[in-house]
Design goal:
The structure is a homodimer. By secondary structure, chain A is an alpha/beta fold. The first copy, chain A, is built from 14 helices and 15 strands. Helices cover 41% and strands 20% of the residues of chain A.
Chain lengths: 342, 342
């Protein structure tokens, strides 16, 4: 019997992860073998989608995460029984940049409270943390190497990146002290995200694909020559599951694992869109520079030597055309919905 | 007029720093030129030494730091008026390893509260933070390079090191956001510390010099071949003052500056002791291995390529013999007090 908690369980990645876990029905637990997924507790500020809410194995805890897992919170019991905790809840990059206190509370304090709750429960769960490539930052006084690797010094250039990097440190020490077994995975820009735009600085990278596919206009705030590091939703979930199921030896340490990237320029992304959806698709993109977004995105690295992830069997997506096709087949976006432009 | 706050102001470094500042009577403030030192507020859990308490320019705030600088605390006013804040208060390495919650509270939460108080005051002070070489750690799954530099990825192997490294990140983001101007200096093992032993894992490195010089026995818990990175009290204070007075351009970024080291084996330290104090001195050292202390000390790097510090004009001590002589002349330790051993 495997009991699983997903914070941010109603978000895009949380929803996808829950569906994968429930559909598989079982999960390999390091040191215990394959176990039946008996309970998936979704913690989020909003309710999950209907198919998850209807699953008898799903429990739902709505509300602020720090309240839910703090002393007396209604998420304490699920956490105390959890074998695996996927910690995906976070305020995203652009909102943390606008509202410093929100990010400190939602990303840093809530994570600390979650770790403390796991420690106090004493069950030693595996905790998988969705960290971010945003821990790395290029700035005038601190150039990044052309290719980053597992030993590159992070120098975050956003509050979101700082908060993620601090959480990585907390995870490492809670693990070293034997309070839990935490693994931090640095996700790249997950693309193509379905659904509505969010307040992440990277949000447009999905928007410029998703919206044209649905026949809607999208805005691109950066130069077409901007290089970005992408990972598909499927590969992102693969990485979270790998972190949850790897042995300590295979995981190979307490520092974070950076994922292998599909490295593209925005121009190359758009050419792939036109190849897959027809040459009219990219005409729905409005190129409107936004210096604030451009600065944040340009501060992230795009080329990654992901040695630890590769040793774990994780690989980048083969090409962006197939990523777009995956999005179309999963969401039912019809390329033919793109109107011709005269 | 320069108003200065020193947290940990009754500690060994805080006391020395206060005396230097009051004795000089002036301090160069970046962008403002040389100003008269009009007020030095010492915050600590214990009272300062008599000469500092008697100085009319000295104010004393005793109690828990987070209480003193938190909302309604009696240190808020001094902080709100400060031009420079030296943040030296900390729980030390071995006590943080024994009492995890103490370290999280005294090192992490108190620093966060201090930064918030500076931000709320809105006066944009320079804040100098005593970080530590303990942010670096050697472990089985994460070897350190033979020589570390300003770009080496910290991988702390102690709660103290994790807390210091997290504070460096908080400082960087509070600075990036324009809430204050923080500079983190990674101090090495400060040696020879006068006074009584403390609970730092590195404490014995002063003890094996200080105690024999005073005719007392000392215990060395590590192998004589252990390499360590030392800095004299004088050079440590020089570095804190450099951080307080450098321009932003000269300081060169928001990441921490690691100090240049006098790199020695413990055996070489002991030979220097015998050269300075006579061949009987080291016979007062009892070599009693302590695996816990040895593990922490062995996890720290000993060789440092301190490029940023060197550009700032900071240099390692010339040799350990002169460091010992400095300790003798400052404390009145008489080498002749060492009894002969038959």
């Amino acid at each position: 019997m495997a009991r699983i908690v997903i914070t941010g369980g109603s978000g895009f990645l949380g929803t996808r992860l829950a569906r994968v876990l429930l559909s598989a029905g079982e999960l390999r637990l390091a040191g215990r073998g394959v176990e039946t997924v008996s309970q998936v507790t979704l913690m989020d500020r909003v309710l999950p989608v209907a198919d998850l809410a209807a699953d008898p194995r799903v429990d739902v805890i709505t509300g602020d995460l720090a309240d839910a897992v703090g002393p007396g919170g209604d998420g304490r019991q699920a956490l105390a029984e959890a074998d695996v905790v996927f910690h995906l809840a976070a305020a995203v990059s652009a909102e943390c940049e606008v509202d410093f206190d929100l990010g400190m509370r939602a990303n840093l304090q809530a994570t600390h409270t979650l770790l403390q709750a796991c420690r106090e429960a004493g069950r030693f769960p595996v905790l998988v943390f969705a960290s971010s490539l945003a821990v790395f930052g290029r700035s005038d006084d601190h150039p990044l190497p052309a290719v980053i690797d597992d030993d590159t010094l992070p120098n975050p250039q956003s509050s979101y990146g700082i908060q993620k990097f601090i959480c990585e440190q907390l995870l490492a020490d809670f693990t070293r002290k034997g309070f839990l077994r935490a693994r931090a995975v640095r996700l790249l820009t997950v693309c193509v995200r379905p659904g509505k735009p969010n307040a992440a600085a990277s949000g447009f990278l999905s928007g410029i694909i998703r919206e044209p596919l649905a026949g809607q206009r999208a805005t691109c705030p950066v130069d077409p020559s901007t290089e970005v590091a992408l990972v598909s939703p499927k590969k992102a979930i693969d990485a979270l599951l790998c972190a949850a199921t790897s042995s300590d030896e295979a995981w190979g340490g307490r520092t974070a694992v950076t994922l292998p990237a599909l490295t593209m320029t925005v121009a190359e992304m758009v050419r792939a869109l036109d190849r897959v959806a027809g040459p009219q698709a990219s005409s729905l993109i409005d190129w409107v520079p936004d210096p604030d977004i451009a600065r944040i995105v340009a501060s992230w690295p795009a080329r990654i030597r992901a040695n630890r992830a590769t040793r774990l069997g994780l690989a980048a997506d083969d090409d962006f055309d197939s990523v777009i096709r995956m999005h179309i087949s999963e969401t039912g976006s019809a390329p033919t919905a793109v109107p011709p432009r005269y």
